[in-house]
Design goal:
homodimer, Rossmann fold, 2 domains, seven-stranded parallel beta sheet, three-stranded antiparallel beta sheet, 13 helices, 14 strands, globular
Chain lengths: ~325, ~325
């Protein structure tokens, strides 16, 4: 059994590689819901959708989000009405949000709805929202008020410096059904190559999650989302710097040192292996850039191999 | 100035005829919002939309609701997810609901949003929700619990007998901005050929509306939605019978006698003119079936002529 802490695109790609290497039913993803948002009255879970669509083979590879073969009738007409269209919602994608919103209004839990959508799309891996309770990532922008993740990320295209991040509702939240069990029982735990602060951070602050990871630290393998000092996607590099961390695999190792015994870094960062290990984290060097599904499968093999090697050598 | 109490398709058609006869800016419609509903998290105002789309020339004539040249991508995908699709929402139409829901969430009033949508679609007539407060039509069905109008009308295709109707929230509601003024100041007041109980009924129970109509009774012209004992569309005939009224122009006259001095009935009901007048309502016989816009314009001329004749003969 493999449990993966998951953010967005990087996590989705690694998961897609993972289910090529092991049966999908043995893979569980605990997905960040800190950037869930309500827009036009609709409950949108961007990361759950990215992971679901990618595992279903329905994601749009080029765009990097949403569904393939998408149409945009609703947005085109919303624009004509003068509505808010900065957060693009495709016609097929909207069906997911309508479904989720109606089910939640009927009293279903987000975890139930997530499983229903995954099943309808033929996804066999287990997708767990980190919590059924609302936890919301809030960012204080330079010279501005606090805002939501989506406002920062999509509307402002993460161009404004971030001064602080907090996770509203986290302290009062409970882990989603199956989350702690998935952490306790997994043979291998993986922290996907997602933004450590905005994507993995919300999961870590759900009460019980960090404690569960610490208890399993030796079995936790993180994959660095930073390659040669840059984020492959999104603002992780700048955000790390803005919040006083080092925008490098060393900074990532320092952030994860309490919860992960191993960090997989890209070949490009081989020269920083000693510094990573100095942070108290075993460093594994491998190709981590997942352009094609084959790359993702290879990275999944590395992660699983690391866990197996460690297990056989020290247990 | 002409003010029309409006339900759905019949009202929309009469209004379309009206704006052919007088400048659209002189026409105000007070529209039933008792069947507004929230579905998939979206605030849907079916009657406001029908009137708006029809006056914009964007309505689908054959289907009788929604927009012309509509596509159904969202519904097709919602069906694949196993979602609720009994209330069909086209892709273009959905943009209206997304816009309305977001604006209401931002604190706008339904009346503001209605004006914005009408303006975006080029509608010059004034469209007023009967109230900005939620008033909800609730129906007790035979042998069943109370349900919403849409559940009765769309989901159950109005096949179940109705035992009682009430308008939840009506007593605490206020007329929408401009509603009482439109009733006070109009030269002619028209009750459109809509379901007297389900479409006009909710407007009449908004506090102040019936009083305002009574004060203007001599200037109020109603058009019967019942022709030869049948509703042209929908369940008005059966509903009248089920609730103890006569499913005829005489029943309509009795229902409106307190608020309308004149009832326009179809040629087919010429034989009932004396009975209508016996109910205390002046009876005008004319073609009332609006197949083409020209029919609607002709009916509008009749209504305006009635008011003018009465005005010149008695004032």
């Amino acid at each position: 059994m493999i449990t993966v802490l998951a953010g967005g695109v990087g996590a989705a790609r690694l998961l897609r590689g993972m289910v090529r290497e092991v049966p999908a039913t043995q893979v569980t993803a605990i997905v960040n819901t800190g950037d869930d948002t309500v827009l036009h009255g609709l409950h949108i879970s961007p990361y759950l959708d990215t992971v679901t669509y990618t595992l279903a083979g329905r994601n749009d590879e080029e765009r990097g989000w949403g569904l393939a073969d998408e149409t945009w009738k609703v947005m085109e007409n919303l624009e004509r009405l003068g509505g808010e269209t900065w957060f693009s919602l495709g016609d097929q994608d909207l069906a997911t949000h309508l479904y989720r919103t109606q089910r939640l209004a009927n009293g279903a839990r987000l975890s139930d709805v997530t499983a229903e959508i995954a099943a309808a799309l033929g996804v066999e891996a287990h997708l767990l929202p980190m919590s059924d309770d609302p936890v919301r990532t809030r960012l204080r922008l330079a010279g501005g008020p606090e805002t939501s993740f989506q406002d920062y990320f999509v509307r402002r295209r993460h161009e404004v410096a971030v001064e602080a991040v907090r996770f509203e509702g986290a302290s009062g939240s409970e882990p989603g059904p199956g989350v702690l069990e998935a952490l306790d029982r997994a043979d291998v735990l993986v922290i996907a190559p997602s933004n450590p602060i905005l994507s993995i951070g919300p999961i870590l602050v759900v009460p019980g999650v960090t404690e569960a990871l610490r208890a399993r630290r030796e079995d936790v393998v993180a994959v660095s989302p930073i390659v040669a000092g840059s984020a492959l996607k999104g603002p992780a590099d700048r955000l790390l710097t803005e919040l006083g961390h080092e925008a490098s695999v060393v900074g990532v190792a320092q952030l994860y040192a309490q919860v992960a015994a191993t960090l997989v870094v890209d070949d490009a960062d081989a020269g920083l292996a000693a510094e990573v290990e100095a942070a108290g984290v075993r460093c594994v060097v491998a190709p981590t850039i997942m352009r094609a599904p084959e790359d993702a499968a290879a990275l999944a093999r590395v992660v699983l191999g690391v866990a197996r090697d460690w297990s056989s050598s020290t247990r």
